[in-house]
Amino acid sequence: MTSTVAERYRIIWCMRLHSALRTALACAIVGGATMYGPKFLVREIKFAAFSYLTAVLIVSDAALGDTLKGCWHALCATVQVVPVAMLARWLIAPEVGIRVGTAALAVAVAAFVVALPEGTHMTAKRIAFGQIVLVCSDAVVSDGGGSDGYMRPVYVAASTALGALASLLALMVPYPDLAYYKVRKLCRVYAENASERMNLYVRAFKVQDNHTKMALISQAKPLAETGNKLLHSIKSFQDGMKWERPWSLYLNPNLVGRGDRLQSMELPMRGIEYSLASSPAFPVQVDDKEHLSNVLQGVSNQLGQKIEQVKCFPPFYSMTEPETGQEFKEKPLLPLEPISRTHKSDSVHFFFSCIDMLLNDANFASEVRQNRHEKSIKTFRSWLLKLSKRLEFAIKCSLSLGLAMLFGLIFDKENGCWAGLTIAISFVKGRQAIFTIANTRAQGTAIGSVYGVICCFIFHYEELRLLALLPWIIITSFLRHSRMYSQTGGVSAAIGALLILGRKNYGSPNEFALARLAEVFIGLSSFVMVELFLQPTRATTLAKTHLHMTLCALQDCIKETRLYLAAETDNVSKFHEFRDKQRNLESLVCELKKFVEDAETEPSFWYLPFRTSCYQKLVESLSTIADLLYFLSYNFEVLQKLAETSTRRNELQEQMNSEIELFQENLSSSLKILEKAHLKESKADSQDAMDEKLRDLETGKLKNEENLSVISMADDKEKQRNAEEDEEHDDNKKNLDERRVQCLGAIGFCINSLSKERIEIEICIKEIERWEYQSSQ
């Protein structure tokens, strides 16, 4: 295992180093062209700093396909800005120029127009923002530029084109850096990671003591985190593959990539881990242990075959006809006759249900059907919400850039553009951790400027300064993957040194560095001020409000689950409605996680400290509930297909509906407690009720423990029926009966786990209420 982990980290490190070298090569091409290129080229490149900025934006952590896409975005931005800028400067008499206030107003209006359309990619918007800032600041500084001043925006276009061309050459020399090969390599690493995880899970299932079992599960947790990071990398390169093979999408627009296929494997693996963590070591007693050992060996072999298929996955899959690969229909199941039916054995059935889902790509096929369904029922119900978000984003960009340009030009007309350029590449859609971004960008700019000034002091020749720049580009490429600096800090550190070491004839490096730091502070201050003005609500408050919204969505999802379970056999529309609710719950949980992360990094100032640990537990429990609801629906769908008579099916539906109804009633009490916590109202009745529930939990008794036994009793009856029918039916019939019992056990495990997670939610909510009440006192 150690050698495999080392191999995985070596591959990831080599890929990052390779990307850093490509970025350094792109910057070297820009530096060589602007400092030592032909005179006619140097004469056209008036904004070399923007060439560096464009190259860093396009080539960072990119493959050839991503670079082609980035060049297209640069072209789109140039077409949006430069022709209009030339026309505007020609209309306002180019020999006169414009004033500072007029320039700031023009930046604000142009930024609003560029930011409003939804179809424009964010990279194109950032490049366009930078071009707007340069055009308007140049009109102020150059006093119009003479009779041919309306042609000066062409210099901005030429600088942008140089950065894009340098990025493209860096990805082509000495050989094309294709996203296809990176995805194939990452898929191989992911397959090895998944193989290690599944081996640990199977070993944890076999062990006899809880200490060894939990140790094995702990070893699998970092592998799961690494697997999620690998999936994120695969998905990021997946879009670039479409640009490398555009004809594939033209011939078949209904294609999904490898990342989507691999993502469908994560859900059953999370379920396997949860089943092991929620049950004691070896929770069932089996007489024929040799047969059980053969069963587990067969499962391990089939998992190995499945993971080998991951390495051979095609680049894209058709959504209309998914290729599920080899079907593992003859999956050996546990010998159910010798097993005594208890709640502990439900985890075993849930374990094998997740194995079955993983082997037969059931989740992927369901997602493909759901995607087709979503495309067919798409309406304009969310149009107003999207429009309001677009308007909010456009206003934010407009005010931030307008104020940054106004104050930056007033402070220093010659270097005023840096205030706008600093935040032009910082915009993202949606809410962001503004204090964290401002802090990392300021730190990155400072260390990059200091490095540039020191290198100018040590190296007096321009050639040596340019060589000193290359190792710094490599270092900052790794800084982008660090927690301290992240993407914003790493890019700022690279640009801070590039602007000093990669140019000439800009004056004293010390004075330029100080002037730029001042302008960066002005720009970031404008950015933070506008963010606080448009979104004054703190991330802590948003996390509390969003938690209540998520719990309401959970209640709606539970309600939809009841309707789905009560529906007729093979009711496709009810299943899709349930999946819509369940997906909405998943998205809300992801948003809640982001709010919690933002609130954790947000400074407290004079407010109460944020209870991070409780919110993290809530996110984990809500995420688990969302997964359990899907597992519940999956096993119920399989059970419907296996049920022989409508009478038996109706009995099962009634039993599960009663359990879901009880869960929904208990969840309503949690919502009431949360509302009281949000309003900081503490009442004795809620306190006593919660204390009683806590005492029940501490003593190991659940409120719905008697009701949960209904499923177990049904399973016992089912097992008895199976035992009687086994004498009259063949082996195929016996396998179907075993599948029924497995689904029943998995459903019982899901319902029992839902109740446990609900209690965990109530505990965390009550702790938040007590914390806020005591802090306010």
Describe the structure.
It is a single chain. It is built from 27 helices and two strands. The chain is mainly alpha-helical and 777 residues long. The two termini are 53 Å apart. Keywords: Cell membrane, Membrane, Transmembrane, Transmembrane helix. This is Integral membrane bound transporter domain-containing protein. One of its GO terms (cellular component) is plasma membrane.
Describe the protein's topology.
Blueprint: H1 2-36, H2 39-44, H3 48-59, H4 64-91, H5 100-115, H6 122-141, H7 153-172, H8 179-206, H9 210-244, H10 246-251, E1 255-257, H11 258-277, H12 289-311, E2 316-318, H13 343-359, H14 362-376, H15 383-411, H16 417-424, H17 434-458, H18 462-479, H19 486-501, H20 509-534, H21 539-565, H22 572-601, H23 612-642, H24 646-678, H25 684-698, H26 705-725, H27 731-776
Antiparallel strand pairs: 1-2
Helix pairs in contact: 1-3, 1-7, 1-8, 1-18, 3-4, 3-6, 3-7, 3-19, 4-6, 4-7, 4-9, 5-6, 5-15, 6-7, 6-16, 8-9, 8-11, 8-12, 9-11, 11-13, 11-23, 13-27, 15-16, 15-20, 16-20, 17-18, 17-19, 17-20, 18-19, 21-22, 21-23, 21-24, 22-23, 23-27, 24-26, 24-27, 25-27, 26-27
